[in-house]
Amino acid sequence: ALDQFGEWAYSKTTKKIAVYFGGQNPSNLTIQVAKREHLVVNSPYVKNLTFRNLEFKGSNKNLLMIQKSGGVTVENCSLNFAGENAIYGSDTPDFIVRNNQFNRALSGAIYFWYGTPRTNISDNLIENSMPFQGMAKSSDLTGIGIYIPADANNAVIERNRVLNSGYNGIHFGGNFTLIKN
Q1: What is the pLDDT of residues 76-112, one digit of tens each?
Q2: Measured distance CA(61)–CA(39) in Å, rounded
Q3: CA-CA-CA-CA torsion sign (147, 127, 120, 180)
Q4: Rg of the chain over CA atoms, in angstroms?
């Protein structure tokens, strides 16, 4: 059933992966496979973390998984090829995501589950969230470029470009939330 370049399937019986390369010789190609569930996982209750001018590429789940923290900044980074979300955050107030490039997160680019008041998400380019129907995490909250929850009070989401989302570009909640430009 593989008929498009790069498609793959895993056989539980043979424990092998089959990849469709068309007429190209696989020896002439670079093949990359994610080996880690998450590239970054913080220790709980660590505050004032900054990730600046970094490239995060390839995870089976989230590229960055930040929980029970505060004062986190992700700035001027490139976040590509997440198996689920590029950034997953929960119980982390004052989370800043600014001037980053996101591409090909299989579920969503920025996904803040709960406990993220005063979030600021600005000047990001988000492309191809949930590019393949049926490959996202199972939920009706997938395929969203930016997701902030109902308790994300006083959040600001501005000047972002969200292109090619599988479901919603921006899903937001919270009192006194500002979405613009």
Answers
A1: 999 999 999 999 999 999 999 999 999 999 999 999 9
A2: 9
A3: negative
A4: 17
